[in-house]
TrEMBL record:
It comes from the Eukaryota. It holds the Pfam family Sacchrp_dh_NADP. Signal peptide: none annotated. PANTHER family: SACCHAROPINE DEHYDROGENASE (PTHR43781). Transmembrane segments: none annotated. It comes from Stachybotrys chlorohalonatus (strain IBT 40285). InterPro entries: NAD(P)-bd_dom_sf, Sacchrp_dh_NADP-bd. This is Saccharopine dehydrogenase NADP binding domain-containing protein. Residues 5-110 form the Saccharopine dehydrogenase NADP binding domain.
Length: 329
């Protein structure tokens, strides 16, 4: 039996994840839709490969046979998550992905009961900002008695991959949300906030955005009021035609543009606690964290149904990724 499959392995992040998995000595299959690209990557990594269309249930079921875990790296996830989640539930395969799109998490919520019945785990966002922010929030909430509100921000530095830019553009049409008294409600995009990322820049302005952490942090901390923000520096959000963008930043560019996150937790009595996360560039963090998450799942760290990285592995998970540390302010 092969341990797991990476679908979307030939994409920018999927390829890095595949290389990381090879480096760790894991047994995996590279998979995707394009025969030439998948075959070339499989040859380079000396790994088995599979090529199939996720819209064909018969093909999906056939290719998932004998797989323990599927890591979905193929965005936009608003198109790929549902057929792959359904297929994993049908075939008893644990589903994991690297999505930063709300749809993956809403789907995981919707399919939670079916997954539990099938003894399948759904772990969207096993790498990336969901793991970063969830662990940071979990760390700080654990130090606050009766936490009432979480405001959390991600500092995005450097350039986006072409795939991320396309996914982000598709999601811009959605309303900006916050969690208020346990419910997802709209918020005014003009209601920005300032955060200190402890990077020498002091307080910086952050804009409200809809991040999946509105679902995952609520699930793992039970705090009913959550707002999510982003501060972008450099050329993080590209302009112009997206199809002419490079696949993603070079290793040197990633090295020069680390990410940070900042959290403010307000208790019921009005007292405030703050912490920051310093970590590597998101395009370095995501493949490392997702493969580490897969490794842990294969080792038996599994719970049925919809799970979150911080909830499953604990808030120290982020600090297992090289270059990552949390600091109380």
């Amino acid at each position: 039996m092969t341990d797991f499959m990476i679908y979307g392995a030939t994409g920018y992040t999927g390829r890095i994840a595949s290389e990381d998995a090879k480096h760790l000595g894991l047994r995996f299959i590279v998979a995707g839709r394009t025969t030439t690209a998948v075959t070339e990557l499989a040859s380079y990594l000396h790994a088995p490969s599979r090529v199939f269309d996720i819209d064909n249930n018969q093909q999906l079921d056939s290719h998932l046979a004998g797989i323990q875990v599927l890591l979905n790296c193929a965005g936009p996830f608003m198109r790929t998550a549902e057929p792959l989640i359904r297929a994993c539930i049908r075939n008893g395969v644990h589903y994991m992905d690297i999505s930063a799109e709300l749809e993956s998490y809403q789907l995981a919520e919707e399919h939670d009961e079916d997954a539990r019945t099938a003894h399948v785990m759904l772990l969207p966002g096993c790498g990336g900002s969901v793991a970063m922010l969830g662990c940071l929030a979990g760390h700080m909430v654990g130090t606050v008695e009766r936490p009432a509100r979480i405001d959390i921000a991600l500092h995005v530095a450097g350039s986006m991959s072409r795939g991320s830019a396309m996914s982000a553009t598709e999601n811009l049409a959605h309303n900006c949300l916050q969690r208020q008294n346990g419910r997802l409600v709209e918020q005014d995009t003009n209601n920005g906030a300032t955060f200190d990322f402890d990077n020498g820049k002091g307080q910086v302005q952050c804009v409200p955005v809809t991040l999946p952490d509105l679902i995952t942090i609520w699930k793992s901390t039970k705090v009913c009021n959550i707002r999510t923000f982003v501060h972008a520096s450099g050329d993080a959000f590209p302009t112009g035609p997206l199809d002419v963008l490079p696949d993603g930043p070079t290793p040197e560019q990633r090295e020069r543009t680390p990410y940070d996150a900042s959290v403010i937790v307000t208790a019921e009595d009005g007292s405030v606690r703050r912490a920051v996360l310093h970590t590597v560039n998101g395009y370095s963090f995501t493949p490392m964290a997702s493969v580490e998450a897969v490794r842990r799942v294969l080792a038996g760290e599994v719970r049925e149904g919809f799970q979150t990285p911080a909830g499953l592995f604990g808030h120290t998970f982020v600090e297992a990724i090289p270059g990552s540390s949390i600091k109380n302010l």
